[in-house]
């Protein structure tokens, strides 16, 4: 009876996802949903849930036998089931090549994925470019939860093959054309490229995840998203060699809260203005987060390019900085090349509020906006950053801010001092 009540609660939560107002963040309580889904991940499901265990489809637990086709077969059976379905990845080591787990599906949403195993990449994918490793695509309703680990082993070969102009390397987990998704509890380690890549999705909750790669690992963004609406990322730890969370064109209505970031490049909106006919970015809030020993803190970056778009309604609030190089940064001269034009991205309605801690830079606030499209409606409220770098480095340079092509609205305390 308890498990039946559990499933009823999950059904209500999922219904809230499906029927929620399209202009609001996910309407269900993520903490409640995660608590219940974790019980499912422990196997506490009722008789009306059909279990599809990858081992029953021939997958091996030894970490040396390739089990890609067995995972695909298990997913396909779950996808085509006409009732409630749970895909089970039990404890053990599974060797997998690149695989696409795609709908449309007939299961009763959501597909529950009980993920407790350790996934390792097949050798042939170690240096693959633009061939993402594990991809879920084109269906509605996906709950992934458990204590499992996706280990990209990027340190083996992929990170060594660095070159200018190379396409990005494989993402550990790619989620594309999905609605109503909850990811909880899992770990992503040493991805070759991005850890999680989200595109063309709606209604996403990511909570209690752990993402880890060394500071020197190239282009290993923690969570990267584009053309996606309504996302909440919370209560997670992300430390990589690139952005902890990156939000590029078409990302809308996102909340990032209670996330520990570091090492890495901080929380980034952009790069924008990179592609033709980009969609706008708006409704982004990053709050109650901490950053330690990162390259950047709260950053918006755009290319000097002909591609026009807008980025607006952005709030960075209640952030703690610990030895962050660039705590507050708008950079509209990102990746400048000879002959490039002013950025055509209009940045407006941005607030940096209650940002405190330490920086290793004498110029802790940089607002470098486009000459052709100056930033509008930029507010700095209650900023208190202290210099903690080498006292002998640039000793004649005052602790300061640098602003170009922007008029700033200052409220409350300002350290470093405001731009002249």
UniProtKB/TrEMBL annotation:
An MF annotation (GO) of this entry: polygalacturonase activity
UniProt-listed InterPro entries: Glyco_hydro_28 (IPR000743), PbH1 (IPR006626), Pectin_lyas_fold (IPR012334), Pectin_lyase_fold/virulence (IPR011050)
Residues in the signal sequence: 1-20
Keyword line: Cell wall, Cell wall biogenesis/degradation, Glycosidase, Hydrolase, Secreted, Signal
The reaction(s) this protein catalyses: (1,4-alpha-D-galacturonosyl)n+m + H2O = (1,4-alpha-D-galacturonosyl)n + (1,4-alpha-D-galacturonosyl)m
Annotated compartments: Secreted, Cell wall
UniProt main location, coarse: secreted
Pfam families with a match to the protein in the record: Glyco_hydro_28 (PF00295)
EC category: hydrolase
One GO biological process term: carbohydrate metabolic process
EC id: 3.2.1.15
Family in the record: Belongs to the glycosyl hydrolase 28 family.
PANTHER family hit by this protein: PTHR31375
Job of this protein: May function in the depolymerization of the pectin in its walls during pollen tube elongation, or in that of the pistil during pollination.
Protein name (record): Polygalacturonase
